[in-house]
């Protein structure tokens, strides 16, 4: 099978590609185990080289229809559509958010339709599709009323995924990811960037700012769980989703104060002390609009994994850091 | 104030224009009574002449951005965006539905944004935004899962209305209209066209086919109530809607059998006998996906009107027919 990953140079895209290459096979959505013949990474920046003959790259703007036509052809069996403008940036640059989060998604779906092969499309949506007056615990039956451009644009993407699936143009699945923590690397323009930053930076010996009230509740999942969920979402038989093509990927509910307490338990008080509390109204407003807890029952019944605890997430992140530094020491 | 009505040559658009001209004033959404200076009707076909110097027309394709720029300028205070591809046609011609129901709406919102005046935009949505596994009675808190392209496209329009409002580009209100009955004129390509046809045609001495099971429940409103609701939706202060920019316009719940029983009560058994029952699976499937009853409480609290009964709706339609034939006799 030939797999396209948009946003393939990003943290999740690269990690997904590496995980898929290690596995070498993937169920095709109808339960058949298939060899992975080719993975095409598409992104606006070049991904780091992956020494595997199955991997190729296209560097370019995902909203360019010519690029999309090069990217999707009659041989494309699966697409993980991860490319997106993140929440803070979509709020700051309205037109850019529309162009990438709506237009590029539409053009991608059109390219799939023209290909005529009804590829599986895993669309990464987000809990940011929720908003407004929310119940304490959200589920797939909570109505959507997103209060950010990012959430609006993701909700529109989900609707398109649903209709292109219903029309038989694609076999689509929209996965609403919780906030991912701990992301490696540097802060990004997502309003939720601090959820990784307050763990990652102190573990690197750097100070970090927590811009929200300690009681702010965040719905989150680890990178490993996110990747395993993307694969689980791909492997689901289409009939398991029926006429509801979106799934709330399982998360755990943790307050900012609990995150820092976890950090102290796992890495010590000297590390945890590097978190400074300094509220940022812009970020607080966006975070307040998003759900702090969810009901995992539908996703769990569909076979999606869930994290054990935030302590376990931090420990796993520390192992990843150690193996990354071993890898770079060996180079 | 300068009012634009898209779909201005259509049944609702024309009726809205005539009602507004009779009133001569309209509250501006913040409660101030304003003189209606100008009404611009925009449609793909020319509307019949209205002998009022305040009315002008643009004939053209609403998805043409040049036309939209001519249509909306810095003087535009209010837009009633009624132009749409109806349900049956959007299902049959996917691209046309996307072009008019999504793209034209987006371009219209962009034209408003460029105008820089934050005009009031009343967007006609539909109960077709609901679908999938529905409760017996829908409300604004029922999650959307539309199972028709029309419903998907209207839901996307609502999300855009919400975000353009939140960003301060427009003051938008999305009104989810029930099925309108009794529409005058001829059948159209809406799956719900029969809901008017089984009353209108028999009253005209013609046979009509009811393509659904007699027990099929339809959520409907009369043309008068729909027009009064469009105006009520326009006149609402923006703050009354808060961060939830859509309103389920009040309807009444009537089965197909009850409609024909009403017809018999109001117009006699000879008229009612002109309805033939002949099920059409395509129409039944679309109707089954739509709600048969709704909770009017939010809209009623906001001041929207509601019909008294289906008998009253038929009687009012018969009066309209009589006055229309008097008018044409006088010409």
Strand content bin of chain A: 15-25%
- Rounded to the nearest angstrom, the radius of gyration of chain A is 19 Å
Determine the CATH topology of chain A.
Rossmann fold
CATH superfamily of chain A: NAD(P)-binding Rossmann-like Domain
Q: Which range best describes the helical content of chain A: under 10%, 10-25%, 25-40%, 40-55%, 55-70% or over 70%?
A: 40-55%
Q: What's the total number of strands of chain A? A: 14
Structural class of chain A: alpha/beta
Determine the most extensive contact between two protein chains.
Answer: A-B, 24 and 24 residues
Biggest pleated-sheet summary of chain A: 7 strands, parallel
CATH class categorisation of chain A? Alpha Beta
CATH architecture grouping of chain A? 3-Layer(aba) Sandwich
Quick overview of this protein structure:
Two copies of one chain form a homodimer. Chain A is α/β, with parallel strands linked by helices and 331 residues long.
């Amino acid at each position: 099978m030939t797999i396209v990953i948009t946003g393939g140079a990003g943290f999740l895209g690269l990690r997904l590609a590496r995980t898929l290459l290690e596995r070498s096979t993937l169920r095709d959505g109808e339960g058949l185990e298939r060899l992975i013949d080719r993975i095409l990474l598409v992104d606006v920046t070049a991904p780091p080289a992956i020494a595997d003959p199955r991997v190729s790259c296209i560097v370019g703007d995902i909203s360019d229809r010519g690029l999309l036509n090069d990217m999707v052809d009659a041989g494309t069996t699966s697409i993980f559509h991860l490319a997106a403008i993140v929440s803070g940036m979509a709020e700051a640059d309205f037109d850019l958010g529309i162009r990438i989060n709506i237009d590029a998604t539409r053009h991608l779906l059109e390219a799939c339709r023209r290909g005529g092969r009804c590829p599986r499309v895993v669309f990464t949506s987000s809990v940011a599709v929720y908003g407004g007056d929310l119940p304490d615990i959200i589920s797939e039956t909570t109505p959507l009323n997103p209060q950010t451009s990012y959430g609006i644009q993701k909700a529109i993407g989900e609707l398109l995924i649903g209709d292109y699936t219903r029309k038989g143009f694609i076999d689509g699945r929209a996965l609403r990811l919780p906030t991912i923590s701990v992301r490696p690397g540097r802060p990004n323009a997502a309003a939720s960037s601090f959820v990784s930053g307050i763990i990652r930076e102190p573990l690197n010996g750097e100070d970090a700012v927590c811009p929200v009230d300690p009681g702010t509740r965040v719905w989150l999942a680890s990178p490993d769980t996110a990747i395993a969920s993307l694969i689980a979402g791909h492997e689901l038989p289409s009939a398991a989703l029926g006429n509801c093509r979106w799934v709330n990927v399982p998360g755990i509910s943790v307050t900012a104060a609990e995150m820092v307490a976890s950090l102290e338990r796992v890495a010590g008080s000297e590390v945890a002390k590097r978190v400074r509390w300094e509220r940022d109204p812009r970020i607080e407003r966006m975070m307040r609009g998003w759900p702090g807890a969810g009901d995992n029952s539908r996703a769990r019944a569909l076979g999606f994994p869930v994290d054990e605890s935030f302590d376990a997430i931090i420990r796993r992140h520390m192992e990843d850091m150690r193996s990354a530094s071993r890898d770079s020491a060996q180079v």
